[in-house]
Amino acid sequence: MVSPRLYELGTLSVLVASRSAWELSHGITYLDPSSPVSRNLQIGGYQGLEERWLLEKSLRIPNLPGSSSCMRLSKLLAPSFAQQLLAQVQSQSYAVDNDSVDGLPSFEYYPMINGTWSDEELGKLLQPMVQELILPYVRSRYSCEECTVAEILVRRYLSEERRTHNLHFDGHAYATVVLGLTPPDEYEGGLYIQPTPHSNSRRFVQLEPGDLFVHSFDLQHGVRLWSGSRYSLIFWIKSSPAAVATGTTPWYHRSAAEGDPDAMYNLAGQFLQGIEGEVDVMEALMCGCKIGKVSFCIMEGQSFG
Ligand SMILES: [Fe+2]
């Protein structure tokens, strides 16, 4: 059973939308535009730019080998297409059931659930992009020939509704693709990644309408807005059609068995939700502490430096 304290922490940070002392003194820091590996990208009829950042896992856990990566794909989609999507999704009604990260109203809208379109009209607009751009890119980038879209959702951040989405992994998605819909000059803040346990490593991601941001399950990220409103379209991708059909996360099993802390932590999260099989929850929670999930350190009575 997860401690209610987890939810208290989440609630506090959602309600307190003002800037911390650190943020006031440092401002918003964006992903370093000078550090990515860039290349021109052509996928079918789509052409644009891929910027790729590599983030060493040893930044979170000393001596842990490997890296996470994130990519921004820009100029592949016309801004007018993003405008059309934005108008379409703004007219929908958004769910206010409990969010899986903080337990507060989610303000989400799902055009696709378990691989099936629930919004046929939006599906007609999105299907060509999904089949001809998103899936070919993800399958190639992650060497995952069977990768399949499981869910598509819209998240909205309006000033009277939601200002944050706390730091988290997308534990149920092998890869995540975020499509920017709102022009970045209409809000302050936005999507960020955090490669270390400390919030001073947060790097915000500037997404023009139509830009895509792609990351895998092992990159912690969140959203924080200080002003304005923001809509984003999110594609959660699983490693196979079978994983979509069963709602499972088979890509964790081998890595978790080999002791990979991210895989163990995410697999434990699935277990706690009743989705995946047996795991050593206490060991996995300690991995959560090690990878910088402060709430889990509090649960375990650990100090966190
Ligand atoms: Fe997420």
From TrEMBL:
Keywords: Iron, Metal-binding, Oxidoreductase
The keyword Oxidoreductase belongs to this UniProt entry's keyword annotation: yes
The keyword Oxidoreductase appears for this protein: yes
Gene3D superfamilies in the cross-refs: q2cbj1_9rhob like domain
Fe2OG dioxygenase domain span: 148-239
Highest rank taxon of the organism: Eukaryota
Family: Belongs to the iron/ascorbate-dependent oxidoreductase family.
Name of this protein: Fe2OG dioxygenase domain-containing protein
Organism: Durusdinium trenchii
Lineage: Eukaryota, Sar, Alveolata, Dinophyceae, Suessiales
